[in-house]
């Protein structure tokens, strides 16, 4: 399906140290060295939480920025990923010894409160960590595959796709809230304690999880960069700009769309699972319509065409959200609304666009002078930003 | 699910739930009509549509308070004044929004969606700052209180009847405006072929602005009617927006008849199931059915054939 030519498969063009790779190295340095040194564990954990949304934003850059498919249901996948992880942790936290005061020991507390007598069948496999980790990626990807197959094969796209994904987000939220005995209802799955006996609530564990999260994010960033630079990435851009021409050239457009939608879903789910691990609970408030569309703004603020921009955008918006809601809770919705409008009307390419427009030319001049003009011929602007 | 009810009781239950469904249907239709004009005819996704509706509801609330304290003689008829004011307020705001925002985004429907979502957040916070986070309700005049007993077991609330009558009246007016007036002809011409409409002398920008204003104005009237059957809070609009979009898409975006038919189907299915299953399950089943049908038939129930 991907038709990736060998020459691009982690070939020379991928490893070339250029603007993108340098940017990723810089981001890695910021995440792994600067932030842990500069912030206390509480704030660092908070940054870790923000970074889990960056996975969603990365998926959206590919799905929306590259391929032009706006999904307003990324919260679904974030949530499912998070819930898969939370189910494993919850089962570990509700061992028969820990829950012997319940009328049915050995099942999660909220099930006991809802008069359930036995563990539901779909909870059973989540006793296994390896199954849970596979499920984190596989379940959302499968769901995305089904939705994508049904929609893209019938050439549903654009705003219709956006509205239907939004409806799915609504359905899943109502389902989770309504089926309290099976899902923990509106409170979600709370009181998660250990991962294979390792207490995830201590500061040390939070620090370790932060680094795991940062490493995963950098890994996903590289993976996304690879997808974008492959022939697949080019086809995605092509089908965003002129879908019919790609179809007439003999490509099955739907397959590419399904792939990128599943890929974005899997990325979001990884973010969701890391969210559960770092924050210690999962609830339907991260699944619904409002959080899903909020995740789109992270990507839009960073620049819908830029992978790095999406990470910075996520960090910036969430940081602003925390700051504003701590001191001026009333202002937050105004700021958020203004962001939505501003990002669409005034700077559609987000932070990355501003960087390309105002900072990159100066940097280029600087580096060109230092290396005696030798670097001037090197392609510093990546093709995707030049294309827009 | 039907055990323990006699046939007569089942009949009454279906009738009562059917009536509750009709009230929901009225609210859906009123909201969806405005949306069908904006989305179906203009292709603009207005996520702030719910907030335009809530604006109408708050205007009605203010109007009811104002009239009951300053002109109590007018109170029995305040609702009609409120409705007109709600139409004007929402319509004017809609035209302002079209002028300031939407007209730059006609070629980018996905971006319109995001921008109007931002607008909806701002409006919500404005409502919260002005009216408070608590839900407000209006006092109904005496003649709208109570209910009519049709048989021993079936009772029909009067305010529900009134809302339904109102819905029918508004639908007829919209139909007349869109399909029987010269102005409506202009609107349809612009939506079908903008360049050609411009070429024959229709001021397309003006038509856009008034169409958007009309859609928002109808949302305001919907909000006004909504106060009679439910209370209004800053985020009430958001609760209905996705449902309403589904109604419009399900009906076939360009067809007003389709919108009404799908609003009827969805509201009846939901309220009938609500009695036998829990509310959330009923809603999930309804939405899921709609989404699955949309996947099988993406163009919606009724399709208007237009040559592009």
UniProtKB/TrEMBL annotation, chain A:
Domain of life: Bacteria
Molecular function via GO: branched-chain amino acid transmembrane transporter activity
Keyword presence, Membrane: yes
Annotated localization: Cell membrane
Keywords assigned by UniProt, alphabetized: Cell membrane, Membrane, Plasmid, Transmembrane, Transmembrane helix
Transmembrane segments: 20-39, 51-80, 129-152, 159-178, 207-227, 248-275, 295-319, 331-355
Membrane topology: Multi-pass membrane protein
Gene Ontology CC, one term: plasma membrane
NCBIfam families cross-referenced by the UniProt entry: urea_trans_UrtC (TIGR03408)
Protein name as it appears in the record: Urea ABC transporter permease subunit UrtC
Biological source species: Azospirillum oryzae
TrEMBL record, chain B:
Gene Ontology MF terms: transmembrane transporter activity
Organism of provenance: Azospirillum oryzae
Key word Coiled coil present: no
Protein keywords: Amino-acid transport, Cell membrane, Membrane, Plasmid, Transmembrane, Transmembrane helix, Transport
Pfam family, any one: BPD_transp_2
Lineage: Bacteria, Pseudomonadati, Pseudomonadota, Alphaproteobacteria, Rhodospirillales
Biological process (GO), any one: amino acid transport
Gene of this entry: urtB
NCBIfam families per record: urea_trans_UrtB (TIGR03409)
Residues that span the membrane, as ranges: 20-40, 52-71, 77-97, 109-127, 158-178, 212-233, 239-263, 275-296
Localization of this protein: Cell membrane
Name of the molecule in the record: Urea ABC transporter permease subunit UrtB
Cell membrane recorded as keyword: yes
